[in-house]
From TrEMBL:
GO terms for biological process: axonemal dynein complex assembly. One of its GO terms (cellular component) is cytoplasm. Residues 375-398 are annotated as: Disordered. Keywords: Cell projection, Cilium, Cytoplasm, Cytoskeleton, Flagellum, Repeat, WD repeat. InterPro entries: WD40/YVTN_repeat-like_dom_sf, WD40_PAC1, WD40_repeat_CS, WD40_repeat_dom_sf, WD40_rpt. SUPFAM superfamilies: WD40 repeat-like (SSF50978). SMART domains: WD40. This is Dynein assembly factor with WD repeat domains 1.
Length: 398
C-alpha cells in the first residue's frame, strides 16, 4: 500500500518540516531538515527542490509548504534576546550543583549535585517535581536526548526512565565525565578520563567504536544534530571531530593554551565551540574548521558553554563567577550575568532561547529570563556569579 501524506508539522529549531504519513494503516513521521535555511533564500527554488526530492509531497502541496517555509523565516527574523534578568533563585541541593539542563518544552529542568541526586524542577514556579536517587557517588551526566540518564563517577553508566533505573554500559577504564544521545536515540557517546570516547548501541548495549587519539583525559563530548559527527574536548588542549559511521578522526582543533573543558555544536551543526581553562572560547565553522571568533573576557577558566536554539547566541560559564552572553556573528559580549556567590558549574538555554539556567558551587540554581521591548527588569541581576571547571555534565530531555 502506497504511503499517504496526512499532515505537515513545523519544527523551528533546528529548522525543518516533519511529514506525518500513513503506510499500511500505521502512522509514521519523516523529517525534512532545512539546516541551511536563511532569510534570503529563494523560496520557490527551495520548494521545487523539496518537491522533486520527496515523493510524499506532490505539486499541489506547494502552497501549504510555502506557508511553512515563510513561517520558519519569520521566526528567524524575530528580535534576538540581547539581555536577561534574574527570574528565580532555587536553593536546589545540600551540596554544590554539578550541572543543569532544560527538557525540550522548557517547562522543566533538571539539576545534578555532589549530594548524589538529580532533581527535576518546574521552570515557571520553581517548585521541585521529583528527585532521582540511588547513585553511590557524584552524579556526572544526564544525556541530551531520550530518557534522562544520570551518569556517575565510576567507569560505567546507568540509565533512568521516569524514575526507574535501567541498563548499565561498561568498558571505560576510568571515570565517565560526559555522555550524550544522538537525535534518533539509538546511539550514545561517552567521554572518559581513560583518554577515550566510546560510541554505544542503545538497543544492544554494545560498544560500536572506541574513539582514540587524545593524549589526555576527555572532558566533554557531543553529537551534532544529524548524528553524523561527534566532537570531543580534552585536557590535552585540543578538540577533535569524529565521523560516527567509521569512528575516524576527521580533524584536530588546536589553539587553546590550557585544557579544553567543554565542547558543543549549535542546533544546525554548522557551528562548533570549545571552552578552555585558558579563559577563552573558540567558535569554529564545523565543515571548514576555520576559527571564526576567539571569545575573551572572562577572568578565569570557562567550564561550560551552550548555544541558543537559533545558533545566534552563546553563553559561557567561568570560574570568575560570571556567565557571559555572546553574539555568534560578531563575537561581541552582550551581557555579563552576575549573582552567584561561588563558581558556576553549568549553564543552558531553553528551547525558545528566552530562559537561561545556571548551576553553581554555592548550592543554588538561578533562572534568568529574557528582556523584551515591553518588559521591565524585575530587579538587579545581583553580584558575583560563578562558573567553574566542569567536573560533571548532563542534559535533560522528555
Amino acid at each position: 500500500m502506497a504511503a499517504k501524506l496526512r499532515k505537515f508539522l513545523l519544527r523551528y529549531y533546528p529548522p525543518g518540516i516533519i511529514l506525518q504519513y500513513e503506510r499500511d494503516g500505521v502512522m509514521k513521521q519523516k523529517p525534512i531538515d532545512l539546516l541551511d535555511l536563511t532569510p534570503d533564500v529563494d523560496v520557490e527554488v527551495l520548494l521545487s527542490q523539496i518537491i522533486r526530492q520527496e515523493p510524499l509531497i506532490s505539486e499541489n502541496r506547494r502552497p501549504a509548504l510555502r506557508q511553512l517555509i515563510h513561517r520558519l523565516i519569520d521566526k528567524m527574523l524575530e528580535q534576538q534576546h540581547h539581555s536577561f534578568t534574574l527570574f528565580k533563585v532555587l536553593r536546589a541541593h545540600i551540596l554544590p550543583l554539578t550541572n543543569c539542563a532544560f527538557n525540550k518544552s522548557g517547562d522543566r529542568f533538571i539539576t545534578g549535585s555532589y549530594d548524589r541526586t538529580c532533581k527535576v524542577w518546574n521552570t515557571f514556579t520553581g517548585e521541585e517535581v521529583f528527585t532521582l536517587e540511588g547513585h553511590k557517588n557524584v552524579v556526572r551526566v544526564v544525556p541530551p536526548s531520550s530518557p534522562p540518564a544520570p551518569w556517575t563517577t565510576p567507569p560505567s553508566c546507568g540509565t533512568w526512565r521516569r524514575g526507574r533505573s535501567g541498563a548499565t554500559l561498561a568498558g571505560h577504564r576510568a571515570e565517565i565525565v560526559s555522555l550524550g544521545f544522538n537525535t534518533g536515540g539509538d546511539l550514545i557517546v561517552t567521554g572518559s578520563f581513560d583518554h577515550d570516547s566510546r560510541l554505544w548501541d542503545v538497543r544492544t548495549g554494545q560498544c560500536v567504536h572506541v574513539l582514540s587519539g587524545h593524549r589526555g583525559e576527555v572532558s566533554s563530548t557531543q553529537f551534532n544534530y544529524a548524528g553524523t559527527l561527534v566532537v570531543s574536548g580534552s585536557i590535552d588542549c585540543t578538540s577533535r571531530l569524529w565521523d560516527v559511521r567509521s569512528g575516524r578522526c576527521l580533524s584536530v582543533k588546536q589553539g587553546h593554551t590550557d585544557e579544553v573543558l567543554d565542547v558543543a555544536f549549535d542546533a544546525a551543526g554548522t557551528k562548533m565551540v570549545s571552552a578552555s581553562a585558558d579563559g577563552s572560547a573558540r567558535l569554529y565553522h564545523t565543515l571548514t574548521g576555520v576559527c571564526q571568533h576567539t571569545l575573551v573576557g572572562h577572568e578565569g577558566e570557562i567550564s561550560k558553554v551552550a548555544f541558543n536554539p537559533q545558533g545566534t547566541r552563546l553563553i559561557t560559564a567561568s570560574s570568575d563567577k560570571t556567565c557571559r552572553l555572546w553574539d555568534c556573528d560578531t563575537g561581541e559580549c552582550l551581557q555579563v550575568l552576575e549573582g552567584h556567590t561561588d563558581e558556576i558549574f553549568s549553564c543552558a538555554f531553553n528551547y525558545e532561547g528566552d530562559f537561561i539556567i545556571t548551576g553553581s558551587k554555592d548550592n543554588t540554581c538561578r533562572i534568568w529570563k529574557a528582556l523584551t521591548a515591553s518588559s521591565q527588569p524585575a530587579g538587579p541581576g545581583g553580584a558575583g556569579g560563578g562558573l567553574a571547571r566542569p567536573t560533571t555534565a548532563f542534559s535533560y530531555n522528555d
